[in-house]
Amino acid sequence: MRSVQRALNIYKGHVAAVMDVDWSPDGRGLISGSYDRTLRLWNRDEGVSRDIYHTKRMQRVFSVAWSPDANFVLSGSDDGNVRLWRAHASKRQGVKSARHRQALEYNDALIERYSHMPEIRRIRRHRHIPKVVKKAGEIKQEELKAIKRREENERKHTKKQFEKRQSERDKAVLAREK
Fold it and tell me: Which top-rank group of organisms is this from (predicted)?
């Protein structure tokens, strides 16, 4: 039986309320749509999004869904539009020649081989997000740092310093029970 005392994973990244979440058909990923006008694709075991989708005209995202073959993602937003996105933005769909397939495999091998280098890691991690979302994320980070700093100061000067710290996964579950 599943234990609900602890969250399996916490997915962080949105700066506004998450309106819809959907698991991929293969169960290895999920997608979330948010009030911050972005869609985020997540790998099941990672807490940060692997891709962020947005457009200038897209309003708040209220619904998201995967296609049955897990190659596409659908989103419905406040502006009344349904948008179709690739599940892997950089991968081309369709028939590939042997030469093109070989070039893609070589590029993947290079990325894997040099993934330990900071420059490659930075390029691989970089995602363009709207300025408004980026600024809201920075403000949210500052607020979280202040809360953490306040908790640490309280911990230093009270009897809480002798208590064991709780992991963030445990805190999320306990907060709902209160």
Answer: Eukaryota
